[in-house]
Amino acid sequence: MLAMDFRGPKRVRASQKPMPEIKHPEDAIVRVTRTCICGSDLHLYNGNVPDTRVGMTFGHEFTGIVEEIGSEVTKLKVGDHVLVPFNIACGKCIFCKQGLFGNCHESNPEATAVGGIFGYSHTAGGHNGGQAEYARVPYANVGPTVIPPGMDPDDAVLLTDVVPTGYQAAEMAGIQKGDTVVVFGAGPVGIMAARCAWLFGAGRVIIIDHIDYRLEFARNYANCEAYNFRELEDPVLFIKKTTDWIGADVCIDAVGAEAAGNAMQTITGRKLLLQAGSATAVHWAINAVRKGGVVSIVGVYGPTDNLVPIGNVLNKGLTIRANQASVKRLLPRLIEHVQNGVLNPKGLITHRIPLEEVADGYRIFSAKLDNCIKPVLISPSAGI
Amino acid sequence: MQTITRDPNLLPGWGIDADPDNDPTYPMRQRTPEDHDGYSWVRPTQQPITVEVLHSNERPNVSAVFGTSSPPSGLSGIIRRFAFNYSENSYLHWLPLLFADRVNVVEGIVEDLAHGKVPNIWAEKGYKAQWKYDRVGMLEKIAAAALVTTAAVFVLSRKSAPKKHSRSAR
Ligand SMILES: [Zn+2]
Ligand SMILES: [Zn+2]
């Protein structure tokens, strides 16, 4: 079968690989119908996540048709069209039992700080991802959810990560009525977080990025204010000024380790890998939020140390909440929102790229070419 | 002198203290007795360990399922095994892993060549798309690289010139 094949930093291709097999009684094999490239894939693509091995297939956002099931799979049957949450969760461990499906303890042997994630390095369990014709889906009774009849697969595939992560970013921020919410990063997740902030009662939503076409997209899609930090003297100072010198009630970091905008962070975090990625966005979030405010982090950082202004967290009395989204916990509510037209995930998709051209897809997305917001990869055997 | 009350049941509570349902931190934590049972859940069936699986030394075992995408091999594998002697709290865990990744890239090229496949770096880097959508930027980069190369050649040839001269004088 054809699958994305990581060869080294900024080098990927579509290769022929063996078909995935059932390895555990709760496994399913799905034929992938849609798969996306995600902003967090870029941390892998750029070689910033430790233990990203050559030959691995990325892709944690995918939908597919069940082709084969293991002996203990009871919740799915062959032929079901499912959306597969990016986190691999057992449903039995202490964390899954609390709804923390993003923090499962039985899906990743390599690290305890993060649960298993499809196609996300060996640090996240060494699971091959969905940027392929077929994928192995462990714990098929827990994560995969049958796509409701009538739902567009383009909407469904964004329910595997982007929508729940954006939604949870707003949820963790504890937004109260009338709050000023600042979102750093106008990628798909940031745009979705800005849109969801309104659902929680925000009074004002501001998004900050450095690429004009993304800001324009965010302004239209999330109906928010959008500013280019390269045109601002200082983004933190700007937010203080525009909030009557108080600061935002809530700041959301939807950027993570690839952040631009600070030379020191770029050199130490992205070039020398002395810290787990550039922490520019979290710096700005901590410094731009009001005293007593909440900082919500969904941007992905690596496992090693970051230079984070923890002194300001203490002095300002901040609450910091951060997590990988627990997709499974949020799905029922979000499916409802999509069906009622409250959220329109597929509106984020700007590019449809054949799996064979995966290298070009990564280049277009990472270099932000052709006004790309969100690319979806279509495998030759997708069928639909 | 009045002392503070010794019986915590007599203290007036507020928030989760007064009402267990009033927990503003969900989904961070649910306060159930099972929280304190530790590593005691009924574990899922263990996936047969048919390939070498490195596991964090912050857990006693291999998780019930795991990926089998690229088992450790070669020199990068030796470095990775070394890294897994150290906890996730240690630079000696993460930095060797990043180094192993770089070694692994070279191993990947060697493996390609051994299979008679010359990696098409231009295609793998997606330069076709870059050329299509960002021709100006790409030409600028190529020009800058050419300029640096020319300058380097110039400086090096100037440095070596007197040597040649003195040699020929002798
Ligand atoms: Zn994603
Ligand atoms: Zn679990």
Helix content of chain B: 40-55%
Give the largest interface. A-B, 67 and 65 residues
Helicity range of the residues of chain A? 25-40%
N- to C-terminal separation of chain B? 105 Å
Percent range for β-strand residues of chain A: 15-25%
Q: Treating each run of at least 4 consecutive H or I residues as one helix, how many helices of chain B?
A: 5
Structural class of chain A: alpha/beta
From the alpha-carbon coordinates, what is the Rg of chain A to the nearest angstrom?
20 Å
Low-confidence stretches of chain A: none
Broad shape of chain B = elongated
Rg from alpha-carbon coordinates of chain B: 31 Å
Describe this structure in words.
By secondary structure, chain A is of the alpha/beta class. Chain A is built from twelve helices and 17 strands. In chain A, strands 3, 4, 5, 8, 9, 16 and 17 form a seven-stranded mixed sheet that branches. In chain A, strands 12-11-10-13-14-15 form a six-stranded parallel sheet, sandwiched between helices. A two-stranded antiparallel ribbon of chain A has the order 1-2. The longest helix of chain A has 13 residues, at 327-339. The two termini of chain A are 18 Å apart. Chain B is mostly helical and 170 residues long. Chain B has five helices and no strands. Chain B is elongated. Mean pLDDT of chain B is 83; it is low at 166-170. Chains A and B meet through strand 2 and helix 12 of A and helix 2, helix 3 and helix 4 of B. One zinc ion is lined by residues 38, 40, 60-61, 86, 161 of chain A.
